[in-house]
Design a protein that fits this description.
Largest sheet of chain A: none
Structural class of chain A: mainly alpha
CATH architecture of the largest domain in chain A: Orthogonal Bundle
CATH superfamily of the largest domain in chain A: Tetracycline Repressor, domain 2
Order of helices and strands of chain A: HHHHHHHHHH
CATH class of the largest domain in chain A: Mainly Alpha
Mean pLDDT of chain A: 90
Shape of chain A: elongated
Oligomer: homodimer
Number of domains of chain A: 2
CATH topology of the largest domain in chain A: Tetracycline Repressor, domain 2
Number of helices of chain A: 10
Strand content of chain A: under 5%
DNA sequence: AACGCTCTTGACCAAATGGTCAAGATAATA
DNA sequence: TATTATCTTGACCATTTGGTCAAGAGCGTT
């Protein structure tokens, strides 16, 4: 199940490396610890500067390790980046549960908004990494977007359409609705400096996220004619 | 009216350069032409790779000029980047017209959504440039976000609140509402690869944007209890 | 034609880039 | 304790980075 591939190049398998483990369940404790540190540091750097703009040196410094040591563990900058994308897409996939026509639209949509918001909140740097990747033309995520994710959206869209037919919600285009939810939630990670600058705060707290999530649920459900 | 400044560094004035003109109305025709070419090329490159990730060499190639020639015109990578941000913020500011409590909420909000969408559509690379800048921590736009833009939002927020008091709309937090509109529209530039991948198209056309804009207007107005 | 200005561009620079390698340190196993 | 596998790291490499410079080409004015 390799999620990531690249446009003009062969796919990169997450296993089967000469030295790297990258997912192997059995790895020395020290390797596990260092890989974890490196992944966290790299996520921060790539999220801020993108793939091209992020340097191995910067990652190494953030991780508190010599550059050679970082490369010893991850093999290459590219592989590190891909591993991060895989990790983020795994989190994303873990959030996407199935729905059926017989489910309650209000419940489903609200759960959808809340879980997407929770994901954004739990992994803001991962969200930004994803944003940077897509912003740069999604060179590594093309196949995922056009395949797995597309199928997921279309399955969801069919259910929404059926709900509309049954008069359970307004006949809105489900795809635009899904994009609306994605963008509105994603915003609080990707545009955090803007949000903080305008609200004058230096961080958003638990109650802010509660308030925002409630606001989004209320407005969107009402906006597409779903009463709860 | 210098919009741009940088966190740990002195502000960069857009005028008063040794050779660059950057806004001077009188500039040789050839200079004007080349600067235009360079700006367009640079916008594409920076939008895709961010400030750090975008190289002068790549910009030069995109512009079809030798690197030295690019630097002759723009002085430095940093100055080029700042000029692009200034240009985009000028476009943004040109869109932000004033509103009053006596205006019609439906009209104002719909015009707001439509003009923001039009801006995104007219300048997708500029939108992406802005997104990349904010994603990277907004090092050059901090002051703008915390100053001018914050004031603009808060002025708008007061009017929204008054509308709510008069029962013209639901009592929603105006700031979250504004963020919702910004994010939902911005999405179609910043996440274009995702949008195209999922819809299976290779470009969005006039009617797509019409449809999306109508959808957003309908849902958001209804969602915050504004009837038209 | 001669002057001065703008423009063009290859050569060049120090610094940073991603990545390799070998030699030594440490840990795990016998 | 001896041996093997993992880990650590500075030295090093070719390439790319942003930027300078000087020498010349083009061009408008007198």
């Amino acid at each position: 199940m390799t999620v990531i591939s690249e446009v003009g190049s062969a796919p990169i398998s997450s296993s089967a490396s000469s030295r790297s483990s990258a997912g192997d369940s059995e790895a020395s404790a020290i390797r596990q610890r260092n890989e974890e540190t490196i992944l966290e540091a790299a996520e921060a750097v790539f999220a801020q500067h993108g793939y091209r703009g992020g340097s191995v040196q910067a990652i190494a410094e953030a991780a508190g390790l010599p550059k050679s040591n970082v490369l010893y563990y991850v093999g290459s900058k590219r592989r590190l980046y891909v591993a991060l994308l895989e990790r983020m897409m795994a989190r994303w996939n873990a959030m996407l549960d199935d729905i059926s026509v017989d489910d309650d639209p209000a419940e489903v949509l609200e759960a959808f908004i809340r879980s997407k918001m929770a994901l954004t909140r739990a992994h803001p740097r991962g969200s930004r990494l994803f944003a940077a990747e897509v912003l740069g033309g999604a060179p590594f995520l093309q196949d995922y977007l056009r395949g797995e994710l597309r199928d997921w959206v279309q399955a969801r869209a069919r259910v929404f359409d059926q709900w509309a037919e049954r008069g359970l919600m307004d006949p809105v285009d489900p795809v635009w609705l899904i994009f609306l939810i994605w963008s509105a939630t994603q915003h609080y990670a990707d545009f955090e400096p803007q949000v903080l600058g305008i609200t004058g705060r230096d961080a958003l707290g638990e109650q802010d996220y509660q308030e925002i999530t409630d606001f989004l649920c209320r407005l969107i459900l009402k906006g597409c004619g779903i009463c709860r």
